[in-house]
């Protein structure tokens, strides 16, 4: 058997690439290298702007040409770095050599020795990861989460008055509305999204073991702490002043735990939507030309929600591994974080794919109110809660001599269906005030939804 031509090993780079391709601009190896070049170039500019070591400031025209090294980073740079890394066996060193090579080409060889000046690889990497992860989350992942949340809010508003039998423990329970139940997910996701929006993205820039030792050896009269802080903050990321050789990654742990939390909520949404579809509460809208089953032509399978569920489980597992691994580094440095962080894009990619599945799935369902109405009409016994609560209020008010209202309703309703006429007859025979009787007789399972509709207004 002949070997296949080179193929993507991950489905994110093959079958599902269209849904996650925006992430590759930031979290691929090329995206990371582009950010590394950005950090190297901006550090060089920062040093020359201060005329350190007698270097003259770079002209605005030359700054623009330098910045083009990362703003126009493309296949030529990707290929150059691949060839150089095959020799250096060190990715950040290859980036340094790329910048030095381009400086010579631009006629700026006089400042080449300020490339990667006093830096350890982690200074470049921690800053590059802060940049790429922040951009991937804020520009790609978070907007997708917000789009799904907005869709849920719209569905909640559309179905706020759609009464539905609740199912606690899988059993008929106090009615609610479909809009309120969807609104629960929207509210949960909004809360976690706000936490993610407030995330920190931190970098260190303090040398080999976080002491600025080489910096001071080269120039003891410079306030290197202030200079590097200003540099990092100029890149719109936060500064971590107290580290070992590596930035401690706590911000990443916090972020990935929050993203995983959002994934858990989305997983709950996917399984609930799947269940509502299986109960007939939602009908799936046929997609022209689509095949539901290879052998059963009548079927429309809830594949969007099933795929979302599976991708969230993969993402959640990877995010948990990232958080567990990145929180620890032996003594001043080990390399367990290096290969681990290369999977950030995979973890966020499966989460983004799940969001895409959910967005598409939510757009392909319609509420079957007639099914909800039939379920409600078949379960009048759920009004037992309302009746026993009203009786308790009547006892407290001195308008009833009933001694155990819960037991009374339990005997009537537990484990058996009770219809509307039976409940009405039961209410008429209760020892309670006439106003209370009137309120209970006016209730139906479809109207016993409390504040469900109003609650949706808080989204």
TrEMBL record:
Pathway: Purine metabolism; IMP biosynthesis via de novo pathway; 5-amino-1-(5-phospho-D-ribosyl)imidazole-4-carboxamide from 5-amino-1-(5-phospho-D-ribosyl)imidazole-4-carboxylate: step 2/2; Purine metabolism; AMP biosynthesis via de novo pathway; AMP from IMP: step 2/2. Its EC number is 4.3.2.2. Residues 329-449 form the Adenylosuccinate lyase PurB C-terminal domain. It comes from the Bacteria. GO terms for biological process: IMP biosynthetic process. InterPro entries: Fumarase/histidase_N, Fumarate_lyase_CS, Fumarate_lyase_fam, Fumarate_lyase_N, L-Aspartase-like, PurB_bact, PurB_C. The gene is purB. Catalyzes two reactions in de novo purine nucleotide biosynthesis. Catalyzes the breakdown of 5-aminoimidazole- (N-succinylocarboxamide) ribotide (SAICAR or 2-[5-amino-1-(5-phospho-beta-D-ribosyl)imidazole-4-carboxamido]succinate) to 5-aminoimidazole-4-carboxamide ribotide (AICAR or 5-amino-1-(5-phospho-beta-D-ribosyl)imidazole-4-carboxamide) and fumarate, and of adenylosuccinate (ADS or N(6)-(1,2-dicarboxyethyl)-AMP) to adenosine monophosphate (AMP) and fumarate. Keywords: Lyase, Purine biosynthesis. This is Adenylosuccinate lyase. The keyword Mitochondrion does not apply. The keyword Cell inner membrane does not apply. Pfam families: ASL_C, Lyase_1.
């Amino acid at each position: 058997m002949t070997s296949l031509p080179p193929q993507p090993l991950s489905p994110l780079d093959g079958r599902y690439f269209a849904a996650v391709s925006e992430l590759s601009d930031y979290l691929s190896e090329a995206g990371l290298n582009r950010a590394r070049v950005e950090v190297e170039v901006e550090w060089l500019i920062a040093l020359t702007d201060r005329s350190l070591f007698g270097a003259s400031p770079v002209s605005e025209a030359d700054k623009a040409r330098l910045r083009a090294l990362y703003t126009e980073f493309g296949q030529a740079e990707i290929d150059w770095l691949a060839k150089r890394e095959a020799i250096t066996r060190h990715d950040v060193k290859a980036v340094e050599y790329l910048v030095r090579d381009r400086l010579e080409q631009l006629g700026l060889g006089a400042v080449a020795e300020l490339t990667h000046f006093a830096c350890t690889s982690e200074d470049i990497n921690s800053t590059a990861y802060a940049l790429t992860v922040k951009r991937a989350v804020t520009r790609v992942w978070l907007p997708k989460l917000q789009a799904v949340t907005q869709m849920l809010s719209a569905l909640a508003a559309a179905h706020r008055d759609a009464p539905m039998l609740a199912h606690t423990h899988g059993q008929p329970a106090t009615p609610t509305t479909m809009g309120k139940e969807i609104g629960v997910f929207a509210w949960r996701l909004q809360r976690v999204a706000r936490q993610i929006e407030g995330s920190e993205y931190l970098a260190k820039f303090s040398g080999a073991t976080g002491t600025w030792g080489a910096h001071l050896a080269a120039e003891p009269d410079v306030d290197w702490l202030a200079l590097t802080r200003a540099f990092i903050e100029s890149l719109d990321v936060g500064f971590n002043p107290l580290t070992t050789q590596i930035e401690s990654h706590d911000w990443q742990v916090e972020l990935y735990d929050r993203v995983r939390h959002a994934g858990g909520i989305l997983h709950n949404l996917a399984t609930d939507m799947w269940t509502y579809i299986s109960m007939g509460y939602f009908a799936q809208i046929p997609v022209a030309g689509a095949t539901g089953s290879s052998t059963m032509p009548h079927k429309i399978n809830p594949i969007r929600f099933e795929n979302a569920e599976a991708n969230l489980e993969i993402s959640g597992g990877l995010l948990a591994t990232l958080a567990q691994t990145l929180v620890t580094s032996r003594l001043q440095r080990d390399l367990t974080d290096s290969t681990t962080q290369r999977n950030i894009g995979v973890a966020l990619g499966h989460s983004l794919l799940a969001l895409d599945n959910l967005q598409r799935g939510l757009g392909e369902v319609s509420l079957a109110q007639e099914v909800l109405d039939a379920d409600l009409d078949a379960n009048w016994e759920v009004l037992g809660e309302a009746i026993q609560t009203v009786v308790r209020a009547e006892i407290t008010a001195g308008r009833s001599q009933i001694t155990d209202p819960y037991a009374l309703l339990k005997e009537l309703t537990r484990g058996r269906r009770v219809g509307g006429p039976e409940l009405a007859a039961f209410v008429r025979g209760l020892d309670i005030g006439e106003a209370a009787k009137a309120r209970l007789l006016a209730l139906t399972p479809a109207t016993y939804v409390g504040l469900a509709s109003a609650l949706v207004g808080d989204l």
